[in-house]
Amino acid sequence: MMRLPKESNPISPKAGKANPIGADSVPDVPIEDINQSDFAIPNQITKPDAARMIANILRRARVDYEGSKAIIKKAREIVDLRPTVKPKRQPALLTTEELHRFIKVVDKGNNLQHQLMARLLFYSGIRVSELTNIRRVDVDIDKTAIRIVQGKGKKDRTTLFPESLKLALSAYIGTYPGQCLLVRDGPL
User: Fold this and answer.
1) Distance from CA of residue 161 to its chain's centroid?
2) d(CA 172, CA 113)
3) How close are the terminal C-alpha atoms of the chain, in Å?
4) What is the pLDDT along the chain (188 residues), one digit of tens a residue?
5) Cβ distance 159 to 125 under 8 Å?
6) Residue 128 CB: number of other CB atoms within 10 A?
């Protein structure tokens, strides 16, 4: 069993109280001094069970958070273990044909609000929550720009919409009064 040197003993001999081991007191043990038998772990162990065992060992030794980070870092170096990096998956996109079919179905409903919503979502890249929070003052028809206030990550940004939406958007703004652009004012 691997023992800590006396100077980093977690129990104070005078008071008998816990003296947590910090990152600066982690012993630098040469690889040759580590035996496989020091880590008696069954062959068929699950990752959660192994993590639980390691946490219990660190808890019994009264190792604080910084000390446990240093010990785990050292263990990773010894066994040349690197964390796995999961590749980020890209979202599935509609093909041009699927997008045109979707827009045709929305257009068959003859609802200008739905048509504008679908086109703004697809052509400007805004999120649904951002779309529902657009106010009339956030839309600049001349510059074909929409100011997004408190979007994802609580950040403000400006996004553009295509020239083809200028006429429909200005007609909609002139026809329907209210503060919010595409969602009626007040509770739904």
Assistant:
1) 28
2) 8
3) 67
4) 444 444 444 443 444 444 455 545 545 545 455 555 555 555 677 777 877 887 888 888 888 888 888 888 887 787 777 777 888 888 888 899 999 999 999 999 988 888 999 999 989 889 998 988 888 889 999 999 999 998 888 899 999 999 999 998 888 888 877 778 777 654 43
5) yes
6) 9
Which one, of 54, 73, 121, lies nearest residue 94 by Cα?
121
Cα separation, 172 vs 170, whole angstroms = 5
Q: Select from 103, 130, 123 the least CA-distant residue to 114.
A: 103
Q: Which domains does the chain have, with CATH numbers?
A: 16-78 (no CATH), 96-175 (1.10.443.10)
* pTM value surpassing 0.85: no
Instruction: Look at the chain and count its residues.
Output: 188
Distances (CA, A) of 149 to 4, 78, 119, 155: 56, 49, 20, 7
